């Protein structure tokens, strides 16, 4: 700086410091190499993930249409056979999943829907792969959340401590540059690096507009990552300013990265599982089976559990036997049994989902202790790839299952006589008579899953935004204190 630097405005001084920092980086092979590798890695992950997501979206749309057409093309059959024939529901990726697939790779993307059962989602990518396939999951979210902080550390760990080691710090301060102004100038240079990192992410996010994403969600998504990387830039500046040697600064930052990006997310998950225990699958299956036995067997119209329904129908239609009913008694039992069974299954499903959500919320609270946890929560919530989106898919798929099963049961009640139904296994001709027209298979509604509205997603992500802002505020206060004592 010149001897007249004391008369230069603070912002101008920051710009001079930032430019000087960039000149140093351009002369440093390590800094430029790290920056180039980081940008190439981010850009490559954006392109690969975008292509993969578009292929998945196209494939699942095609599979959904094929499943619906296959169901509708079935010939005349007994309606209950179609109940067991079943149908598939596929979850298409959200537009922003090109950047953060979130829980999609672990929760499954399709469900087989059939009568009397609620099946789990299937074909989760991670469950189908091996340990080696983890190398292929370098998504843009993973790159920015985990590797970008390392890039900032490698580039900026010596930003202030280097001046101290080279004996230029005292000279700069004596020229009228305050400690905070010097640190702010170094920070301005790091912020420009953050801007470069976010360019491919922002461009890819804007492409999701073509897939129907809202500009509000895109801005919230990119802003969240800008805040996250700002936290790391401030951490780098704090360590480099507070410690006297480059080696000490790098060691402290490396340990901080391990603690915040590797250890704390694992601690958060373990704490969530311990704090909110969940019933095991075997235990849940036994509990469900016990409740089912109380409902009676929907395939057995003579089950004692349905005696009250029988008496009610005979009284309603003023007849003496079920043969005289104007409706198919077996169909009535199937419809009533399915409704009661679905209610029980939904109660267990909701309990399980509430437990999973409670565990997730406990884990998200660790965002106050780790910015990595905060951005991971914010990223998935804003992108529509969080556990809430998976639960929405499960609920909508179950609603589809119940509607089409009850639609078939309605055909069973109204279009098939009880006598014909009872004699369907007598011979071939009787089996042919116990069929209904294939037009009844049109009860299946088109299924097209969409994520929650942008406003709801951003509302859910508000606590994570606050966590990142709290980190930034705390670090700025710490840097101001260090800047006053910078020597």
Automatic annotation (TrEMBL):
**Which protein, by its recorded name, is this?**
ABC-2 type transport system permease protein
Q: What keywords appear on the UniProt entry?
A: Membrane, Transmembrane, Transmembrane helix
Q: Where are the transmembrane segments?
A: 142-160, 188-209, 215-238, 250-268, 464-483
Which top-level group of life is the source organism from?
Bacteria
Q: Does the keyword Transmembrane apply?
A: yes
Question: What species is this protein from?
Answer: Paraglaciecola agarilytica NO2
Any one Pfam family here would be DUF3526
Asked if the keyword Disulfide bond belongs to this entry, the reply reads: no
